[in-house]
Amino acid sequence: xxxxxxxxxxxxxxxxxxxxxxxxxxxxxxxxxxxxxxxxxxxxxxxxxxxxxxxxxxxxxxxxxxxxxxxxxxxxxxxxxxxxxxxxxxxxxxxxxxxxxxxxxxxxxxxxxxxxxxxxxxxxxxxxxxxxxxxxxxxxxxxxxxxxxxxxxxxxxxxxxxxxxxxxxxxxxxxxxxxxxxxxxxxxxxxxxxxxxxxxxxxxxxxxxxxxxxxxxxxxxxxxxxxxxxxxxxxxxxxxxxxxxxxxxxxxxxxxxxxxxxxxxxxxxxxxxxxxxxxxxxxxxxxxxxxxxxxxxxxxxxxxxxxxxxxxx
Length: 313
Known about the structure:
Radius of gyration: 22 Å
Largest sheet: 6 strands, mixed
Structural class: alpha/beta
Distance between the termini: 22 Å
CATH topology of the largest domain: Rossmann fold
Strand content: 15-25%
Strand order of the largest sheet: 1-14-13-2-4-3
CATH class of the largest domain: Alpha Beta
Shape: globular
């Protein structure tokens, strides 16, 4: 099937191909967008469809850098937080799609429709709370510990999961969010002597790496200013006595209560969506489930695909 030429603001609808042919069609579209330096965002009906497409597109076009923006997999206002691995994957995906044409970026982003509806931290939060350090760089251990704690990392005795760090003399073990492996930083006085990955099960050091990227440990800030803003906006927007709310009181004590993720808009003056991370040059694809013998796939160039969020097909 020949791909239509896309224009900003114009929508195209094509019949959904049979079987895995939809993944082939989307892979061809993404390859064309990649050659033009653009990102392809595919909004699917549900998470299983997104996972199927990312697996099949990798088969048809192995050179495409495909990422999945996962759901929290919790119900709204549940009294427990999403699994730390999911938070790690979400932060890593947001960081990659914000890189655009760089080597560390992504060519295709798959997002379930319900996940695309949730508000996110603005891109400036992720950019301002991500930092790097390299071998031979000077590093203040006390300052690093303070930064890790402020970024939402947990101080533990043994690092096994994303978002944790441990300090043992001149060794700092940390498991950055969005990283598949943890790292061991060996300090010589105030200089980084070496950085190695290690096995979280055996705790044995593995291979050396030149640098480490640290994403924030949460999707929201927990500094004094952010907590004060949260409490102010709570009083401003929610009815009732705030002192009777455990979440409100915990925030005053610097505790991120389980399930706090659904109150994310209270931490910021303005929030964003996944489309704000994609940029204006992205191509958005609405992958519609089959209806009877035929389905549909709607395409619209430009990341501002507002009708999708407004509920229009």
